[in-house]
Here is the input.
Amino acid sequence: MAFPPVDEQMEVLRRGVEELVPEDELVEKVEQSRETETPLTVKLGCDPSRPDLHLGHTVVLRKLRQFQDLGHRAILIVGDFTGMIGDPSGRSKTRPQLTLEETRRHGQTYYDQATRILDPEKTEILYNSEWLDAMSFSDVIELSAQQTVARMLEREDFKNRYEAGQPISIHEFLYPLAQAQDSVHIEADVELGGTDQRFNLLLGRQIQEAQGQDPQVCMMLPLLEGTDGTEKMSKSLDNAIGITEAPEDMYGKVMSISDDLIYRYVELITDVPTEDLPKVKAFAQENPRDAKAQLARRIVTMYHSEEEADAAQQHFEQTVVEGGTPDEIPEFQPDAEAGQEVGLLNLMRNADLTESNSEGRRLIEQGAVSIDDETVEDTGLYVDVSEQAPFVLKVGKRRYARIVWNGRE
Here is the structure.
């Protein structure tokens, strides 16, 4: 195929990148790719222990999609084997290990969600157990001999744990080596990852050289801040915006980000043309409320539709800005007999207003749960639905359910 000019490709590929090691080698690889009409092999490893994707994950996935659109080969490596070790990146203690069955199941979920961003027809998915599980013990010794303990202890998380006297299992040293072997196996030209993966990516480059391959270029993308505006986006920190969330929740969460993150979100997770970014930055500074609304609409449209973005905006204006209750609220009828009391925590979870009882308990403690506009304070509250229904159960700012019993309106 005819690849775009090198300058055009580099302009696209540099956007939003935190670190490129080394940039001149990427330029050379792109030039050679264009001259030989051979696509670059671009690798992205995914962690199957966290299969639910949020907007933070899309930063690197969108970069991989850009490589695809430029005509290059995108390989998504599901770490089903390395997932049994557990990535120690950023960890203060040994990470729990998963079974091969768990990592395979999570990996498929990851792929299903990732291809909402990637072109599924141009995305190759590989499981690294296919080659890592086939390695003999002598192969592992040979691989381990290509790295030193001193080099491993330069890694910040290992160094911190070692200095603090916290245990580091030997198998954790094997994780970055195994990930590096992935690069060797597919002969990667480029590997993508977040800035927290810097050590792993650079090690892949070193191991390729040790095994006589041209080393990969390491492209590190920034870690997107979550809705709290400070910590990196993470489901465990309750500051994430999931790509499969309902349009109303997605819109409302984007509207809750701090004003100084508007431009960063636009640059890293949307398809706004690069030449328009200066205008976006100026608009966000002059009118953050409208700029944020545009961003929220754009993101909902990307993962749902324009019609659902319209409805989500209307829902937000009605419930949050005006402080009212939406006209259309989903109904939920608990499976309860007359006079039977139902725990509110279970009711919220079964009505899909919370994902777990612990989340519901936390929201009640925060004063974010109400029944017919009356704030609930008791986390152990039980409700006789047959007596109290119908009533509106509100969780947070955007989640509603009309609780009915035996179809009573």
